[in-house]
Automatic annotation (TrEMBL):
Pfam families, per database record: LacI, Peripla_BP_3
Source organism of the structure: Clostridium thermosuccinogenes
GO molecular function: DNA-binding transcription factor activity; transcription cis-regulatory region binding
Protein name: HTH lacI-type domain-containing protein
InterPro entries, sorted: HTH_LacI, LacI/GalR-like_sensor, Lambda_DNA-bd_dom_sf, Peripla_BP_I
Length: 339
């Protein structure tokens, strides 16, 4: 039969509450008593329950990494895995437990964010993949559960954010294309209501406006970060316009850029000789497709690491709420041609 905290208390000659306080690091227990308790734990082979420990500690040690839309993601897209790697790296350095959960827009409507976290004894959560229309996003402002969102610019009431400067990154990529003498662009955008889509679109428009150029709404196609939708949209556009339309496709993800490149090839054209293509993220595949993809590099592992670090600060002190920016880089490869 498994050893319980009651067995430890009896063996050490103290109360159950004293054992619990010793395990959770309270300082009002004498060194002699604490040593006796931990000796009993060792001799009996007792293993504290991590979740139960979180319930009684002043600062719960169980944090959640909640990914929305995980099942809809492309198999070639490893961004959530890289984020998780960063979260786990910070957690292992700071004696935290991480639980991973997947959700989507429909499931968010069935169970509130606060209830979701409390049922799992989550002291705080890192959210990735949510959009501005998701139920969880609408709850964050009023929730008392500490949270860090990835790529959603919000910093209020125990809610912080970690991202690159999406506006600046997209502006810099647009300016690079303009320096290569491109003037007509087709934007392959992400989810229409995603904050990251709105920010990247704002950056593209800033870059064009700064050079006296305009981006008509008809040159923005929302493809939901889907390779298939990007492929179909690009193919339809090329078959209709040929080389009389845009000279460059600005894609808001590398996955969509891959779809566009395949569409260009399948319609009998070439990249970059006929059309230039840029991506965003710099997933490992971006370097190995042909031609290699010009893109924006963001370190998603760092996003996860700094997201966990910020969450820990907010749990310990809600005044630590802020927006943490991670550096980005424009990576020039072979998918853009100078006109």
């Amino acid at each position: 039969m498994a050893v319980t905290i009651k067995d430890v208390a009896k063996h050490a000659g103290v109360t159950i509450g004293t054992v619990s306080r010793a395990i959770n690091g309270y300082k009002d227990i004498s060194p002699e008593t604490k040593e006796r308790i931990f000796q009993s734990i060792k001799e009996l082979g007792y293993t504290p329950n991590v979740i139960a420990r979180g319930l009684s500690s002043k600062t719960a040690s169980n944090i959640g990494f909640i990914v929305s839309g995980l099942l809809d993601s492309n198999d070639n897209d490893n961004l959530w895995y890289l984020m998780l790697k960063g979260v786990y790296r910070f957690a292992s350095e700071n004696d935290l437990e991480v639980s991973v959960y997947a959700t989507d827009s429909k499931r968010q409507q069935k169970k509130s964010y606060a209830r979701f976290c409390r049922e799992r004894n989550i002291a705080g959560a890192i959210l990735s993949g949510i959009t501005t229309t998701d139920a969880y996003f609408k709850e964050l402002v009023d929730s008392d559960i500490p949270c860090v969102v990835i790529d959603v610019p919000i910093a209020v009431n125990k809610v912080g954010c970690v991202s690159i400067d999406n506006i600046k990154a997209s502006r810099e990529m647009t300016e690079y294309l303009i320096e290569q003498n491109h003037r007509k662009f087709l934007v392959i955008a992400g989810k229409k209501n995603a904050a990251v889509t709105l920010e990247r679109l704002a950056g593209i428009k800033e870059g064009m406006c700064g050079k006296g150029l305009d981006l008509p709404d008809s040159n923005i196609i929302y493809c939901d970060f889907s390779e298939e939708k990007a492929y179909n949209s690009a193919k339809e556009y090329i078959l209709k316009n040929g080389k009389n339309g845009a000279t460059a496709f600005i894609c808001m993800s590398d996955i969509m850029a891959i779809g566009v490149i395949n569409a260009i090839k399948d319609t009998g054209y070439a990249v970059p000789d006929d059309f230039s293509v840029t991506g965003f993220d710099d997933i490992p595949l971006a370097e190995y497709i042909r031609p290699a993809l010009t893109t924006v590099r963001q370190d998603m592992s760092q996003n996860g690491y700094h997201g966990a670090a910020l969450l820990k600060k907010i749990i310990e002190d809600p005044r630590e709420v802020k927006h943490v920016y991670i550096p980005h880089e424009i990576v020039i490869r072979a998918s853009v041609k100078k006109l």
